[in-house]
Design a protein that fits this description.
Elements: H1 2-8, E1 14-15, H2 21-25, H3 27-38, E2 42-43, E3 47-50, E4 56-60, H4 64-75, E5 84-89, E6 94-95, E7 101-102, H5 109-120, E8 124-129, E9 141-144, H6 148-157, E10 163-166, E11 173-175, E12 196-198, H7 202-207, E13 215-222, H8 226-237, E14 241-246, E15 257-258, E16 260-263, E17 271-273, E18 277-278, H9 279-294
Parallel strand pairs: 1-2, 5-8, 5-10, 8-9, 10-13, 13-14
Antiparallel strand pairs: 3-4, 6-7, 11-12, 14-16, 15-18, 16-17
Helix pairs in contact: 5-9
């Protein structure tokens, strides 16, 4: 009955398959899925995880809340349809030795929210994310990386793009030489010295490179002189917009809300101070501004 009904449907169709991992991986199943996709059917999932049969793998039904999000996005207006977007998110981990890394407090929540909002607006989104504990947003291509060098390479591989949003908290410095073995604590040494070298400036490299994305948006985490520092960063790195937030006291990291200031130029009318919003609301507001900027 279900298949007969689908054959008679003349509107868009989406399916959410779930089955045993071996069944899903079977060449016959994969051939049928690809045939459906070639005919315009949208396939949501399956996800990876534990199965009712006791096996683990790909074949788990996409979580209901994710299916709801996909359905909402499916029927929502798509002002960014046909646009390619790159988003960087999360921290980078720079190795000190095989056990330790130099990291920061970024949770990746804001960057993932931006990626999800761009995808909901119809963009083809690649999310390059450092190590985070968050599940990936639905409808987004995800590239997971560790270091700043890895993130730059993945970002460049995602070009060309119409939109690029750099929300990652990239380490400015990395240990010059990561120790090949674990650094042991020594009884006769109370101090440890490490030499650092600069990491690549991912935002500036992409903004000043070729091919340059049509609209480049950077984030600036500041502890003082928010607008002045955001303007200076915008000019120095040659980006279009800067979203600056005050991170003094570390209140933003891991929090549900964010208060940001959007700097789009040099004049007083090019500064927008947004109220404190959820990170999803910040993302939605940013994407709405992006849509306005890209309108012919």
């Amino acid at each position: 009955l279900a298949s007969t009904t689908l054959l008679a449907a003349d509107g868009p169709v989406a399916i959410a398959p779930s089955m045993n991992p071996v069944m899903w991986a079977n060449p016959a199943t994969q051939a049928n899925v690809h045939a459906l996709m070639a005919r315009g059917v949208h396939v949501w999932g399956p996800a990876d995880g534990d199965m009712a049969c006791g096996e683990i793998g790909s074949g788990r039904l996409t979580e209901p809340e994710d299916l709801v999000a996909l359905a909402e996005a499916f029927f929502a207006p798509k002002p960014l349809a046909g646009k390619r977007a790159l988003v960087t998110s999360g921290p980078t981990h720079e190795p000190v030795d095989p056990v330790r890394v130099m990291a920061n407090r970024s949770s990746g929540q804001q960057g993932q929210a931006v990626a999800a909002a761009l995808a909901a607006a119809g963009a083809d989104v690649t999310l390059v994310t450092g190590p985070v504990a968050l599940p990936p947003p639905v409808g987004v291509q995800v590239q997971r990386v560790e270091t700043a060098d890895d993130m730059l390479a993945a970002a460049q591989a995602a070009l060309p793009a119409d939109i690029a949003v750099f929300a990652a908290a990239v380490a400015d410095w990395k240990p010059k030489d990561a120790a090949p073995e674990k650094l042991k604590k020594q009884a006769d040494h109370d101090e440890l010295e490490l030499r650092f070298v600069k990491n690549p400036d991912i935002l500036a490299t992409i903004a000043q490179g070729d091919p340059r994305p049509g609209l480049v948006v950077g984030f600036a985490a500041e502890t003082e002189n928010l607008v002045d520092n955001a303007r200076a960063k915008r000019q120095k790195k040659q980006v279009d917009w800067i979203l600056a937030n005050d991170v003094s006291g570390g209140a933003v990291f891991g929090a549900a809300n964010n208060a940001v200031t959007l700097v789009t130029g040099d004049g007083a009318d090019a500064v927008e101070t947004w109220p404190e919003l959820s990170k999803s609301q910040v993302a939605a507001r940013l994407v709405a501004r992006i849509v306005e900027a890209l309108e012919p």
